[in-house]
Amino acid sequence: MSFDWMIKIVSENWPMFLRGAGMTLFISIIGTILGFIIGLIVGIIRTIPMPERGGKRVTLKIINSILGIYIEVFRGTPMIVQAMVIYYGSALLFGIDMNKLNAAILIVSINTGAYMSEIVRGGIISVDKGQFEAAYAIGMTHFQTMINVVLPQAIRNILPAIGNEFVINIKDTSVLNVIAVSELFFQTKSISGINFRYFETFFVASVLYFVMTFTVTRILRYIERKMDGPENYIMYANQMQVETPEDTLRRTQSVNGNNR
Amino acid sequence: MEKIIEVQHLSKSFGNHEVLRDIDFSVNKGEVVSIIGSSGSGKSTLLRCINLLEKPSSGQIIYKGENILDDKHDTRAYRTKLGMVFQQFNLFNNHDVLGNCIVGQMKVLKRSKEEAEKVAMKYLKVVGMDKYINAKPKQLSGGQKQRVAIARALSMEPDVMLFDEPTSALDPEMVGEVLKVMKELAESGLTMLVVTHEMGFAREVSDRVVFMDKGVIVEEGTPEQIFNNPTQERTREFLKRTLKI
Ligand SMILES: Nc1ncnc2c1ncn2[C@@H]1O[C@H](COP(=O)(O)OP(=O)(O)O)[C@@H](O)[C@H]1O
Ligand SMILES: [Mg+2]
C-alpha cells in the first residue's frame, strides 16, 4: 500500500530528505542573490547612455555586445546542459577540479544573472524618463541618478520578478543532480535507488518542493503587499510564478486611481 | 544690465525636422521673461537646449560670458546654476518632500544633511509646503507637487529658474496657487524664464515677453508692446485665438 510506504520512507529517510531540501534552498538563495547582483551590474551597464563619439563609445559598444552574448547564450540553453559544460569543461579545459557545491552555486548564479540582467534592464527603462531628466537638471551624474533616483524605483518595481526567479531556482536546482550535488532531487534519487519505491519516494519529494515554493511565494507576496504599490510596474519575466493576474490588476488600478 | 544667459543663432533639429531656427535672445539678471506661442512651436525645446537636456545642433549659449557648449565646459556645474521646473513635476518618486529638496544639495553640492535640510525648509516655507515634508509625491495634489518641485529647484540656489509650462498639467483650481508662488518669486528679484500659456501671468508679472512660432522668435518686447501693440501679424493672430478662449 503506497501510503504506508510513504510513511515508512519518510520515517526512515527524513534526515536525507531534509538535508536535500536544505541544500536546495541554500543553493537557490545564494544563486538568486548572486544572480541578482550580476543582473544589477549588467543591467546598469547596458543602460548607460551611449556617448556620441570617441573611445568611450567604442569600449561601451564592445562591452555591451559581450554582455548581450552572455544573456542570449545563458537564456537560450538549458541549465542542465550548462551544468555539464561548465562542470566538466572547467576540469577538462582549465584543469580546475571544482568543489561540487561551488560549481552548483556558480552555475545557478550565472544562469540567474542572465535572466536578472534583462529584468533589471526592464525595470530601469520602465522608470519615467522625467525622473532621469529631473536628476540631470539638478546636476547629478548618470551614476548619482541611478543610485539615488532610478534604481530604488526600478528594484521595487521588479521585486515580483526577482521573487519569481527565486521560485524557479528552487525547482530548477533539481537539474544539478547531473553533477551529483546532493540537493533534494539527488537525495530522492539515492533513496529510491535503495528501496525501489520510485512513486512513493518522489511523491514525498514533490510535497517538499511544493511546500518550499508555496511558502516562499506567500512570504514574497506578503512583502510586496507591505510595500506600497509601485508607480510604474512592468511585467518583465520569463514565467511569472509569484504574482497572480489579480495582483497585477489591483496594482495597476491603484496606480490609475492615484496618479492623475 | 548684466546678461546672464545669451542665446546666439541657436538651431536644433531632430533628424531632418528643424525645430528651432536661428534663435537669438538673452535674459538679464533679475528679469522675468515669458515665452509664449502655440504648442509645437519649440518653446520646450528651447528651454531644454538652454540647460542642455537637448544638445543644440548649432549656435552658442553664453552663460555669464562663458560658452557652455564648449567641450571643456563643465555641464553639470552649469546645470546646478539653472533651476528647472517641468510641466509633469518629475518629483523623485522614491523620496518624500524633504528628500526631494535635499538629495541634490547633498549629492551634487556636497552640503551636509543639516545644512541641506535648513535650506530646504527655507524654500519649502516659501512655497507653503513645509508642513508636508514627510509626504510622498503620490500623496500630493498636482499643485502641491509643483510647489515642491519649485522648492527643490530653489534649494539648489540657482541663478536662473526655468519653468516649462508649470501649470499646464494642473486642474484649473490648482493653477492659482502655483502662479501665486511664481509671482512672489518674481517680485523677490529672482531671474526667471517662463514658458507659459497663462497670458495673465505673462502680462502682469513679466518684464519681457517673447512670442515664438514654428521654431523662430517672431517678436519680443514688453508685455505692453506684445499684448497691446503687436507689430507682427502672426502675433496678433495668436493673441486673438488665445485670448478669445
Ligand atoms: N525628442 C524629440 N524628437 C523629435 N521631435 C521632437 C522631440 N522633441 C520635440 N520634438 C518636436 O519639436 C517640435 C517642438 O516641440 P516643443 O519644443 O515641445 O514645442 P512646445 O513646447 O512649444 O509645444 C514639435 O514638433 C515636436 O514634435
Ligand atoms: Mg512644451
Account of the protein in words:
Chain A has 260 residues and is mostly helical. Chain A has one domain (2-259): MetI-like (MetI-like fold). Chain A contains 9 helices and no strands. With 245 residues, chain B is an alpha/beta fold. Chain B has one domain (3-243): Rossmann fold (3-Layer(aba) Sandwich). Chain B has 9 helices and 10 strands. In chain B, the strands form 2 sheets. Chain B has a 6-stranded mixed sheet, sandwiched between helices. In chain B, strands 2-1-4-5 form a 4-stranded antiparallel sheet, covered by helices on one side. In chain B, helix 3 (97-107) runs parallel beside helix 5 (142-155) and helix 5 runs parallel beside helix 6. The mean pLDDT of chain B is 95. The chains are: A mainly alpha (260), B alpha/beta (245). At the A-B interface, helix 5 and helix 6 of A face helix 2, strand 6, helix 3 and helix 5 of B. Adenosine-5'-diphosphate binds next to strand 2 and helix 1 of chain B.
